[in-house]
């Protein structure tokens, strides 16, 4: 059966705007595009220890067999959640199947009809999708602009207000002033929720994330960590009070109505977290590479192109889908895997090359890719 005409037209519009998405073909280029910041997805140690963990616990089961509330809550869930909560100095931890599921589940279930959600305008699509499903009213505030945020807060006295932001934004790689944000949320008794998808494995002595590194984690309502990036595996976790965990188990539809993660997936999460505690040199190497990247882009006169960032995400603004795709292809032709980020993923005029820095990128690779960028741009 043919696709309906109105859907065909939407695809045609994407093609005309040079913004049609396609699944990429796997390549062996030098990685400056993946979220595998400290190389855990390729860790032979984690791979072998996960297998050993399953054997030691006599688990020979491929799937969870059902939702966690029916038959899928296998023993490794309790072990992993207990470990993750302790690692993050949190009262409780609830594992979800993905970061998307965690955000949709949280924001669709927790804020209620008479509540208000105030979210950063650059919040991730999964946060926005969860907010759309919520019965609460929602309003966006200007990116990292707490004067604008306070202006909105003052409009809703005697109201439960949920403030939502990310500790590192996925497209810009920048961070809000988290100390100031915590103080503001405390001043008005708001519930602060932070998405830490891009800080796990990157910030902190053992990669525990930015809120914990800054010792702000016990002053907020909830943290959402994602495992598919710095941890190199799959799934996510919501960290908060035991009451929050109980509430989510009862009301988060993306948790309730889905098959649980397989024992292998949960074992990988547990093993990867244990590995974080012994990979301090790898995490430090990532930090050094981030510093080097920032230094070199300044030396080469590229700083004006880039969004200010001290994270593993470095974005060079190249307006126009056609322009940024052409520049990405030039870098790929030289052996470097850098992806263009097109509108409408980002606003028109804010198209960009998104460089992801890793612990396993060499200094020579960082120097060369930036020199190529300079040569192609200037």
Structure description:
The chain has 14 helices and twelve strands. By secondary structure, the protein is an alpha/beta fold. The model has no long low-confidence stretch (mean pLDDT 96). It has a seven-stranded mixed β-sheet, with helices on both faces. A three-stranded antiparallel β-sheet has the order 9-12-11, with helices on one face. Strands 1-10 form a two-stranded parallel sheet. 41% of the residues lie in helices and 14% in strands. Strand 5, helix 7 and strand 6 form a beta-alpha-beta unit. The protein has helices at 5-16, 44-56, 75-87, 99-109, 125-133, 146-153, 178-187, 210-213, 242-251, 253-256, 263-276, 280-299, 321-333, 363-377; strands at 30-31, 92-96, 116-120, 137-141, 161-166, 191-195, 222-226, 236-240, 313-317, 336-337, 339-341, 352-356. The relative contact order is 0.16.
- Count of DSSP strands: 12
Query: How widely separated are the two ends?
Result: 50 Å
Shape descriptor reads globular
Alpha-beta classification: alpha/beta
**Unreliable runs, pLDDT <50, ≥5 residues?**
none
Query: How many individual helices?
Result: 14
- Mean pLDDT figure: 96
- The helix fraction, in percent, is 40-55%
Strand order of the largest sheet: 2-8-7-6-5-3-4
Order of helices and strands: HEHHEHEHEHEHEHEEHHHHEHEEEH
Cα radius of gyration in angstroms:
21 Å
